[in-house]
Prior knowledge:
alpha+beta; three-stranded antiparallel beta sheet; 2 helices; 3 strands; 26% helix; 53% strand
Amino acid sequence: xxxxxxxxxxxxxxxxxxxxxxxxxxxxxxxxxxxxxxxxxxxxxxxxxxxxxxxxxxxxxxxxxxxxxxxx
Length: 72
């Protein structure tokens, strides 16, 4: 039986929302094993001097938990 867990992360980019998503997934995959999917929960921007300075996304990242049999 496969069991998954979902965790929320936040990622920021000065380029775009797409870049923030890519950075968030790339970084989460360094810490979490078996990352399988993610969905964007929220998007926001930081504005400085009337221009977008940063793009931020909050991601719900799904990863598969290790099977107890494989931990022995």
